[in-house]
Amino acid sequence: MDSDEYWDNLESRNGDGNGDGVEVDTPDDKAVLSSVHTRSAHNLSASVLRKKSDPMLVPAVGRFRAMRSMLVNMQEVILGTKLAVLFPAIPLAIAADFYKFGRPWIFALSLLGLTPLAERVSFLTEQIAYFTGPTVGGLLNATCGNATELIIAMFALRQNKIHVVKYSLLGSVLSNLLLVLGSSLLLGGIANLNKEQRYDRKQADVNSQLLLLGLLCHMLPLMFKYASAATATTITGKEAASAAATMDLYKLQLSRACSIFMLIAYVAYIFFQLKTHRQIFEAQEEDEGEGEEEEAVIGFWSAFSWLVGMTLVIAVLSEYVVGTIEAASSSWGISVSFISVILLPIVGNAAEHAGSIIFALKNKLDISLGVALGSATQISMFVVPLCVIVSWAMGNLMDLDFSLIETGSLAFTVLITTFTLQDGTSHYLKGMILFLCYIVIAACFFVQKTPPPSDAFVEALGFVPSSGGSPAA
Fold this sequence. Notes:
By secondary structure, this protein is mostly helical. The protein has one domain. It is built from 19 helices and 4 strands. It has helices at residues 3-16, 29-33, 41-47, 65-78, 89-98, 103-132, 134-144, 147-158, 162-191, 201-231, 238-276, 278-281, 300-332, 336-348, 350-361, 365-394, 404-420, 428-447, 455-460; strands spanning 197-198, 425-426, 464-465, 471-472. It has a two-stranded antiparallel ribbon with strand order 1-2. Strand 3 and strand 4 form a beta hairpin. The model is unreliable at 10-37, 284-291 and 466-473 (pLDDT under 50).
Protein backbone atom coordinates (compact mmCIF):
# COMPACT_ATOMS: atom_id res chain seq x y z
CA MET A 1 0.00 0.00 0.00
CA ASP A 2 1.49 3.37 -0.98
CA SER A 3 1.18 6.61 0.98
CA ASP A 4 -1.85 7.96 -0.91
CA GLU A 5 -3.81 4.72 -0.49
CA TYR A 6 -2.99 4.68 3.23
CA TRP A 7 -4.37 8.18 3.78
CA ASP A 8 -7.39 7.51 1.56
CA ASN A 9 -8.24 4.53 3.77
CA LEU A 10 -7.73 6.64 6.86
CA GLU A 11 -10.02 9.32 5.45
CA SER A 12 -12.69 6.80 4.55
CA ARG A 13 -12.56 5.30 8.02
CA ASN A 14 -12.92 8.75 9.53
CA GLY A 15 -15.77 9.50 7.19
CA ASP A 16 -17.87 6.48 8.18
CA GLY A 17 -16.88 6.59 11.83
CA ASN A 18 -15.50 3.07 12.07
CA GLY A 19 -11.80 3.78 12.45
CA ASP A 20 -12.04 6.67 14.89
CA GLY A 21 -8.96 8.32 13.43
CA VAL A 22 -6.50 5.49 14.02
CA GLU A 23 -2.94 6.54 13.35
CA VAL A 24 -0.51 3.68 12.71
CA ASP A 25 3.02 4.84 13.38
CA THR A 26 4.82 1.73 12.05
CA PRO A 27 3.82 -1.30 9.98
CA ASP A 28 4.06 -3.49 13.07
CA ASP A 29 1.47 -1.42 14.91
CA LYS A 30 -1.40 -3.16 13.12
CA ALA A 31 -0.49 -6.40 14.83
CA VAL A 32 -0.43 -4.66 18.16
CA LEU A 33 -3.75 -2.95 17.59
CA SER A 34 -5.45 -6.25 16.88
CA SER A 35 -4.44 -7.75 20.21
CA VAL A 36 -6.90 -7.95 23.07
CA HIS A 37 -6.45 -5.14 25.57
CA THR A 38 -7.67 -5.47 29.14
CA ARG A 39 -8.97 -2.16 30.42
CA SER A 40 -8.91 -1.22 34.07
CA ALA A 41 -11.88 0.11 35.97
CA HIS A 42 -10.24 3.53 35.96
CA ASN A 43 -10.07 3.53 32.14
CA LEU A 44 -13.62 2.25 31.73
CA SER A 45 -14.95 4.89 34.11
CA ALA A 46 -13.30 7.76 32.25
CA SER A 47 -14.30 6.36 28.83
CA VAL A 48 -18.03 6.98 29.32
CA LEU A 49 -17.49 10.72 28.82
CA ARG A 50 -15.74 10.23 25.50
CA LYS A 51 -17.45 10.79 22.18
CA LYS A 52 -16.82 10.39 18.48
CA SER A 53 -14.92 13.38 17.15
CA ASP A 54 -16.02 15.29 14.06
CA PRO A 55 -14.12 13.91 11.02
CA MET A 56 -14.85 16.90 8.77
CA LEU A 57 -11.52 18.61 9.52
CA VAL A 58 -9.42 15.89 7.90
CA PRO A 59 -10.56 16.03 4.22
CA ALA A 60 -10.22 19.83 4.17
CA VAL A 61 -6.41 19.78 4.04
CA GLY A 62 -5.99 17.84 0.81
CA ARG A 63 -3.13 15.38 0.76
CA PHE A 64 -0.74 17.02 3.22
CA ARG A 65 0.06 13.97 5.32
CA ALA A 66 1.62 15.77 8.30
CA MET A 67 -1.31 18.17 8.53
CA ARG A 68 -3.79 15.32 8.32
CA SER A 69 -2.03 13.39 11.05
CA MET A 70 -1.98 16.44 13.32
CA LEU A 71 -5.68 17.16 12.74
CA VAL A 72 -6.67 13.53 13.30
CA ASN A 73 -4.83 13.51 16.61
CA MET A 74 -6.27 16.87 17.60
CA GLN A 75 -9.78 15.66 16.88
CA GLU A 76 -9.33 12.59 19.05
CA VAL A 77 -7.52 14.26 21.93
CA ILE A 78 -9.22 17.65 22.12
CA LEU A 79 -12.67 16.99 20.68
CA GLY A 80 -12.99 13.36 21.74
CA THR A 81 -14.49 14.15 25.13
CA LYS A 82 -17.76 15.62 26.30
CA LEU A 83 -15.73 17.88 28.56
CA ALA A 84 -14.17 19.68 25.59
CA VAL A 85 -16.32 22.73 26.38
CA LEU A 86 -14.08 23.32 29.42
CA PHE A 87 -10.83 23.53 27.44
CA PRO A 88 -11.23 27.31 26.83
CA ALA A 89 -10.76 27.76 30.59
CA ILE A 90 -7.07 26.87 30.13
CA PRO A 91 -6.07 29.85 27.91
CA LEU A 92 -8.39 32.08 29.93
CA ALA A 93 -6.54 31.12 33.13
CA ILE A 94 -3.17 31.83 31.50
CA ALA A 95 -4.45 35.17 30.17
CA ALA A 96 -5.89 36.07 33.56
CA ASP A 97 -2.51 35.48 35.16
CA PHE A 98 -0.65 37.38 32.42
CA TYR A 99 -2.90 40.43 32.66
CA LYS A 100 -3.01 40.30 36.47
CA PHE A 101 -6.73 39.69 36.83
CA GLY A 102 -8.20 38.90 40.23
CA ARG A 103 -6.51 35.90 41.83
CA PRO A 104 -9.84 34.21 42.66
CA TRP A 105 -10.63 34.27 38.92
CA ILE A 106 -7.28 32.62 38.17
CA PHE A 107 -8.03 29.94 40.77
CA ALA A 108 -11.54 29.22 39.42
CA LEU A 109 -10.45 29.09 35.77
CA SER A 110 -7.47 26.88 36.57
CA LEU A 111 -9.68 24.49 38.51
CA LEU A 112 -12.10 24.24 35.58
CA GLY A 113 -9.24 23.70 33.15
CA LEU A 114 -7.90 20.79 35.18
CA THR A 115 -11.17 18.86 34.80
CA PRO A 116 -10.87 17.85 31.11
CA LEU A 117 -7.09 17.49 31.40
CA ALA A 118 -7.45 14.82 34.09
CA GLU A 119 -9.81 12.82 31.85
CA ARG A 120 -7.54 13.21 28.82
CA VAL A 121 -4.49 11.97 30.75
CA SER A 122 -6.47 8.80 31.51
CA PHE A 123 -7.36 8.50 27.81
CA LEU A 124 -3.75 8.95 26.68
CA THR A 125 -2.33 6.43 29.16
CA GLU A 126 -4.90 3.95 27.87
CA GLN A 127 -3.78 4.61 24.28
CA ILE A 128 -0.14 4.03 25.21
CA ALA A 129 -1.12 0.81 27.00
CA TYR A 130 -2.40 -0.64 23.69
CA PHE A 131 1.18 -0.59 22.39
CA THR A 132 3.16 -1.37 25.55
CA GLY A 133 1.13 -4.33 26.79
CA PRO A 134 -1.00 -4.79 29.91
CA THR A 135 1.86 -4.81 32.43
CA VAL A 136 3.42 -1.52 31.38
CA GLY A 137 -0.05 -0.12 30.81
CA GLY A 138 -1.02 -1.10 34.32
CA LEU A 139 2.06 0.61 35.71
CA LEU A 140 1.17 3.74 33.73
CA ASN A 141 -2.33 3.71 35.18
CA ALA A 142 -0.87 3.17 38.65
CA THR A 143 1.34 6.24 38.35
CA CYS A 144 -0.80 8.54 36.18
CA GLY A 145 -4.22 7.65 37.58
CA ASN A 146 -4.06 10.53 40.05
CA ALA A 147 -1.56 12.70 38.20
CA THR A 148 -3.49 15.90 38.91
CA GLU A 149 -3.42 15.42 42.69
CA LEU A 150 0.25 14.46 42.60
CA ILE A 151 1.29 17.50 40.55
CA ILE A 152 -0.72 19.88 42.75
CA ALA A 153 0.91 18.32 45.82
CA MET A 154 4.40 18.75 44.35
CA PHE A 155 3.84 22.44 43.65
CA ALA A 156 2.36 22.95 47.10
CA LEU A 157 5.42 21.29 48.62
CA ARG A 158 7.70 23.52 46.58
CA GLN A 159 5.90 26.56 48.01
CA ASN A 160 6.01 24.98 51.49
CA LYS A 161 2.22 24.89 51.78
CA ILE A 162 2.16 21.60 53.60
CA HIS A 163 -1.36 22.13 54.93
CA VAL A 164 -2.65 22.37 51.33
CA VAL A 165 -0.92 19.07 50.48
CA LYS A 166 -2.42 17.28 53.46
CA TYR A 167 -5.89 18.71 52.95
CA SER A 168 -6.03 17.98 49.20
CA LEU A 169 -4.80 14.38 49.54
CA LEU A 170 -7.11 13.71 52.46
CA GLY A 171 -9.96 15.14 50.43
CA SER A 172 -9.19 12.80 47.53
CA VAL A 173 -9.47 9.76 49.78
CA LEU A 174 -12.66 11.01 51.44
CA SER A 175 -14.33 11.92 48.15
CA ASN A 176 -13.55 8.55 46.56
CA LEU A 177 -14.73 6.46 49.51
CA LEU A 178 -17.77 8.51 50.54
CA LEU A 179 -18.88 10.79 47.70
CA VAL A 180 -18.05 8.65 44.64
CA LEU A 181 -18.77 5.26 46.16
CA GLY A 182 -21.74 6.55 48.13
CA SER A 183 -23.42 8.30 45.19
CA SER A 184 -22.71 5.27 42.96
CA LEU A 185 -24.34 2.85 45.39
CA LEU A 186 -27.22 5.26 46.06
CA LEU A 187 -28.12 6.03 42.45
CA GLY A 188 -27.32 2.50 41.30
CA GLY A 189 -29.59 1.07 43.99
CA ILE A 190 -32.45 3.39 43.03
CA ALA A 191 -32.04 2.57 39.33
CA ASN A 192 -31.99 -1.18 40.04
CA LEU A 193 -34.59 -1.55 42.77
CA ASN A 194 -35.88 -4.80 41.31
CA LYS A 195 -32.42 -6.33 40.83
CA GLU A 196 -29.93 -7.74 43.27
CA GLN A 197 -26.75 -5.71 43.07
CA ARG A 198 -23.68 -7.85 43.69
CA TYR A 199 -19.94 -7.33 43.32
CA ASP A 200 -16.75 -9.32 43.78
CA ARG A 201 -15.59 -9.05 47.40
CA LYS A 202 -12.00 -10.09 46.63
CA GLN A 203 -11.04 -6.75 45.14
CA ALA A 204 -12.79 -4.83 47.92
CA ASP A 205 -11.02 -6.91 50.59
CA VAL A 206 -7.58 -6.23 49.12
CA ASN A 207 -8.15 -2.49 48.91
CA SER A 208 -9.71 -2.37 52.37
CA GLN A 209 -6.67 -4.02 53.91
CA LEU A 210 -4.34 -1.52 52.25
CA LEU A 211 -6.51 1.39 53.39
CA LEU A 212 -6.43 0.07 56.96
CA LEU A 213 -2.64 -0.17 56.79
CA GLY A 214 -2.50 3.41 55.55
CA LEU A 215 -4.82 4.47 58.36
CA LEU A 216 -2.53 2.84 60.92
CA CYS A 217 0.45 4.75 59.52
CA HIS A 218 -1.53 7.99 59.80
CA MET A 219 -2.68 7.29 63.35
CA LEU A 220 0.69 6.30 64.81
CA PRO A 221 2.28 9.79 64.56
CA LEU A 222 -0.89 11.36 65.97
CA MET A 223 -1.03 8.93 68.91
CA PHE A 224 2.70 9.41 69.48
CA LYS A 225 2.18 13.17 69.68
CA TYR A 226 -0.58 12.93 72.28
CA ALA A 227 1.25 10.26 74.27
CA SER A 228 4.36 12.46 74.36
CA ALA A 229 2.32 15.49 75.38
CA ALA A 230 0.80 13.54 78.28
CA THR A 231 4.25 12.61 79.63
CA ALA A 232 5.54 16.18 79.31
CA THR A 233 2.84 17.93 81.33
CA THR A 234 5.15 18.43 84.31
CA ILE A 235 7.81 20.30 82.26
CA THR A 236 7.55 24.10 82.03
CA GLY A 237 9.40 27.01 80.46
CA LYS A 238 12.18 26.54 77.91
CA GLU A 239 12.48 22.87 78.76
CA ALA A 240 8.88 22.34 77.67
CA ALA A 241 9.51 24.04 74.31
CA SER A 242 12.69 22.01 73.80
CA ALA A 243 10.92 18.76 74.72
CA ALA A 244 8.05 19.56 72.35
CA ALA A 245 10.48 20.23 69.51
CA THR A 246 12.28 16.94 70.22
CA MET A 247 9.03 15.00 70.22
CA ASP A 248 8.02 16.67 66.94
CA LEU A 249 11.33 15.60 65.47
CA TYR A 250 10.74 11.99 66.57
CA LYS A 251 7.24 12.20 65.09
CA LEU A 252 8.70 13.38 61.80
CA GLN A 253 11.18 10.50 61.76
CA LEU A 254 8.40 8.03 62.54
CA SER A 255 6.34 9.43 59.66
CA ARG A 256 9.22 9.04 57.24
CA ALA A 257 9.79 5.44 58.32
CA CYS A 258 6.07 4.67 57.95
CA SER A 259 6.07 6.28 54.49
CA ILE A 260 8.86 3.98 53.33
CA PHE A 261 6.92 0.90 54.46
CA MET A 262 3.75 2.25 52.81
CA LEU A 263 5.59 2.56 49.50
CA ILE A 264 6.91 -0.99 49.89
CA ALA A 265 3.35 -2.20 50.48
CA TYR A 266 2.15 -0.32 47.41
CA VAL A 267 4.85 -1.87 45.21
CA ALA A 268 3.76 -5.29 46.49
CA TYR A 269 0.15 -4.35 45.69
CA ILE A 270 1.10 -3.42 42.11
CA PHE A 271 2.92 -6.75 41.67
CA PHE A 272 -0.10 -8.54 43.16
CA GLN A 273 -2.44 -6.64 40.83
CA LEU A 274 -0.48 -6.98 37.60
CA LYS A 275 1.19 -10.37 37.99
CA THR A 276 0.17 -12.94 40.57
CA HIS A 277 -3.57 -12.19 41.01
CA ARG A 278 -4.40 -10.18 37.96
CA GLN A 279 -7.77 -11.86 37.42
CA ILE A 280 -9.16 -10.23 40.56
CA PHE A 281 -8.76 -6.73 39.15
CA GLU A 282 -9.83 -7.30 35.56
CA ALA A 283 -12.84 -5.09 35.01
CA GLN A 284 -15.82 -6.50 33.19
CA GLU A 285 -16.31 -5.00 29.75
CA GLU A 286 -19.17 -2.63 29.21
CA ASP A 287 -20.71 -4.80 26.50
CA GLU A 288 -19.57 -8.28 27.35
CA GLY A 289 -21.85 -10.10 24.97
CA GLU A 290 -20.91 -8.21 21.83
CA GLY A 291 -17.33 -9.52 21.66
CA GLU A 292 -15.97 -6.28 20.18
CA GLU A 293 -12.28 -5.57 20.61
CA GLU A 294 -11.09 -2.10 21.49
CA GLU A 295 -8.46 -0.47 19.30
CA ALA A 296 -6.12 2.47 19.70
CA VAL A 297 -7.28 5.64 17.96
CA ILE A 298 -3.89 7.40 17.84
CA GLY A 299 -0.33 6.13 17.56
CA PHE A 300 2.16 5.53 20.34
CA TRP A 301 4.41 8.54 19.77
CA SER A 302 1.45 10.81 19.23
CA ALA A 303 -0.12 9.67 22.49
CA PHE A 304 3.20 10.04 24.29
CA SER A 305 3.71 13.57 22.94
CA TRP A 306 0.21 14.63 23.90
CA LEU A 307 0.66 13.10 27.36
CA VAL A 308 3.85 15.08 27.95
CA GLY A 309 2.23 18.28 26.70
CA MET A 310 -0.88 17.89 28.83
CA THR A 311 1.21 17.06 31.88
CA LEU A 312 3.06 20.35 31.39
CA VAL A 313 -0.25 22.22 31.11
CA ILE A 314 -1.48 20.51 34.29
CA ALA A 315 1.73 21.66 35.97
CA VAL A 316 1.09 25.28 34.94
CA LEU A 317 -2.52 25.22 36.14
CA SER A 318 -1.53 23.44 39.35
CA GLU A 319 0.93 26.21 40.12
CA TYR A 320 -1.86 28.74 39.60
CA VAL A 321 -4.17 26.78 41.91
CA VAL A 322 -1.61 26.50 44.69
CA GLY A 323 -0.55 30.14 44.37
CA THR A 324 -4.08 31.57 44.47
CA ILE A 325 -5.90 29.27 46.88
CA GLU A 326 -5.50 31.61 49.88
CA ALA A 327 -6.72 34.59 47.82
CA ALA A 328 -9.76 32.62 46.68
CA SER A 329 -10.44 31.56 50.27
CA SER A 330 -10.30 35.15 51.49
CA SER A 331 -12.38 36.52 48.62
CA TRP A 332 -15.11 33.88 48.78
CA GLY A 333 -15.21 33.67 52.56
CA ILE A 334 -14.54 29.91 52.46
CA SER A 335 -11.81 28.25 54.53
CA VAL A 336 -8.74 26.85 52.82
CA SER A 337 -9.52 23.49 54.41
CA PHE A 338 -12.92 23.33 52.70
CA ILE A 339 -11.53 24.33 49.31
CA SER A 340 -8.69 21.79 49.56
CA VAL A 341 -10.65 18.89 51.05
CA ILE A 342 -13.92 19.32 49.13
CA LEU A 343 -13.63 21.48 46.00
CA LEU A 344 -10.26 20.36 44.63
CA PRO A 345 -11.03 16.59 44.61
CA ILE A 346 -14.56 17.05 43.24
CA VAL A 347 -13.58 19.28 40.32
CA GLY A 348 -10.28 17.57 39.56
CA ASN A 349 -11.81 14.09 39.22
CA ALA A 350 -15.27 14.99 37.94
CA ALA A 351 -14.97 12.85 34.81
CA GLU A 352 -13.85 9.77 36.71
CA HIS A 353 -16.57 10.26 39.32
CA ALA A 354 -19.29 10.64 36.69
CA GLY A 355 -18.13 7.45 35.00
CA SER A 356 -18.32 5.52 38.25
CA ILE A 357 -21.92 6.61 38.77
CA ILE A 358 -22.91 5.75 35.19
CA PHE A 359 -21.57 2.20 35.55
CA ALA A 360 -23.42 1.83 38.86
CA LEU A 361 -26.64 2.81 37.07
CA LYS A 362 -25.92 -0.04 34.63
CA ASN A 363 -25.54 -2.43 37.60
CA LYS A 364 -21.79 -2.86 37.01
CA LEU A 365 -20.62 -2.29 40.58
CA ASP A 366 -17.27 -4.01 40.10
CA ILE A 367 -16.18 -1.14 37.88
CA SER A 368 -17.54 1.50 40.27
CA LEU A 369 -15.75 -0.12 43.20
CA GLY A 370 -12.57 -0.43 41.16
CA VAL A 371 -12.62 3.31 40.49
CA ALA A 372 -13.40 4.47 44.03
CA LEU A 373 -11.32 1.98 46.01
CA GLY A 374 -8.45 1.89 43.53
CA SER A 375 -8.07 5.67 43.47
CA ALA A 376 -8.35 5.97 47.27
CA THR A 377 -5.74 3.23 47.72
CA GLN A 378 -3.37 4.91 45.28
CA ILE A 379 -3.65 8.26 47.08
CA SER A 380 -3.30 6.77 50.55
CA MET A 381 -0.51 4.27 49.88
CA PHE A 382 1.45 5.96 47.09
CA VAL A 383 0.87 9.69 46.73
CA VAL A 384 0.84 10.55 50.46
CA PRO A 385 4.03 8.67 51.41
CA LEU A 386 5.72 9.84 48.20
CA CYS A 387 4.99 13.45 49.21
CA VAL A 388 6.55 12.80 52.63
CA ILE A 389 9.70 11.41 51.00
CA VAL A 390 9.88 14.25 48.45
CA SER A 391 9.34 16.77 51.25
CA TRP A 392 12.21 15.12 53.12
CA ALA A 393 14.46 15.55 50.06
CA MET A 394 13.39 19.21 49.77
CA GLY A 395 14.18 19.88 53.41
CA ASN A 396 10.52 20.51 54.30
CA LEU A 397 8.74 19.23 57.39
CA MET A 398 5.79 17.21 56.10
CA ASP A 399 4.78 14.27 58.28
CA LEU A 400 1.84 11.86 58.49
CA ASP A 401 0.21 13.72 61.38
CA PHE A 402 -2.92 15.11 59.71
CA SER A 403 -4.24 16.51 63.04
CA LEU A 404 -7.10 15.14 65.10
CA ILE A 405 -10.14 16.09 63.02
CA GLU A 406 -8.55 15.08 59.74
CA THR A 407 -7.25 11.72 61.00
CA GLY A 408 -10.52 11.02 62.80
CA SER A 409 -12.48 11.70 59.61
CA LEU A 410 -10.18 9.39 57.69
CA ALA A 411 -10.50 6.65 60.32
CA PHE A 412 -14.29 6.70 60.35
CA THR A 413 -14.36 6.84 56.54
CA VAL A 414 -12.15 3.78 56.10
CA LEU A 415 -13.99 1.82 58.80
CA ILE A 416 -17.50 2.57 57.57
CA THR A 417 -16.47 1.78 53.98
CA THR A 418 -14.94 -1.52 55.07
CA PHE A 419 -18.09 -2.52 56.97
CA THR A 420 -20.30 -1.43 54.06
CA LEU A 421 -18.53 -3.72 51.59
CA GLN A 422 -18.41 -6.84 53.76
CA ASP A 423 -21.26 -8.93 52.32
CA GLY A 424 -20.76 -8.49 48.56
CA THR A 425 -24.22 -6.98 47.99
CA SER A 426 -25.47 -3.43 47.78
CA HIS A 427 -28.64 -1.35 48.02
CA TYR A 428 -29.46 2.33 47.98
CA LEU A 429 -29.46 2.72 51.78
CA LYS A 430 -25.75 1.86 51.96
CA GLY A 431 -25.01 4.55 49.40
CA MET A 432 -27.16 7.07 51.23
CA ILE A 433 -25.28 6.50 54.51
CA LEU A 434 -21.90 6.98 52.82
CA PHE A 435 -23.11 10.09 51.02
CA LEU A 436 -24.51 11.63 54.21
CA CYS A 437 -21.23 10.92 55.99
CA TYR A 438 -19.48 12.95 53.32
CA ILE A 439 -21.92 15.86 53.73
CA VAL A 440 -21.35 15.90 57.51
CA ILE A 441 -17.55 15.87 57.10
CA ALA A 442 -17.80 18.63 54.47
CA ALA A 443 -19.80 20.75 56.93
CA CYS A 444 -17.06 20.24 59.51
CA PHE A 445 -14.33 21.47 57.19
CA PHE A 446 -16.52 24.36 56.06
CA VAL A 447 -16.32 25.88 59.53
CA GLN A 448 -12.74 24.82 60.28
CA LYS A 449 -9.83 27.23 59.95
CA THR A 450 -6.24 26.27 59.16
CA PRO A 451 -4.32 25.82 62.45
CA PRO A 452 -1.01 27.66 62.93
CA PRO A 453 2.23 25.64 62.79
CA SER A 454 4.39 24.81 65.79
CA ASP A 455 6.93 27.66 65.94
CA ALA A 456 9.11 25.87 68.48
CA PHE A 457 9.52 22.88 66.18
CA VAL A 458 10.16 25.09 63.15
CA GLU A 459 12.79 27.17 64.93
CA ALA A 460 14.47 24.08 66.40
CA LEU A 461 15.19 22.81 62.89
CA GLY A 462 16.57 26.13 61.70
CA PHE A 463 13.48 27.46 59.89
CA VAL A 464 12.07 30.96 60.27
CA PRO A 465 8.27 31.23 60.53
CA SER A 466 6.86 33.37 57.75
CA SER A 467 4.28 36.08 58.31
CA GLY A 468 1.59 33.96 56.61
CA GLY A 469 1.85 31.22 59.24
CA SER A 470 3.68 28.63 57.12
CA PRO A 471 7.34 27.90 57.82
CA ALA A 472 9.82 29.31 55.33
CA ALA A 473 13.43 28.28 54.96
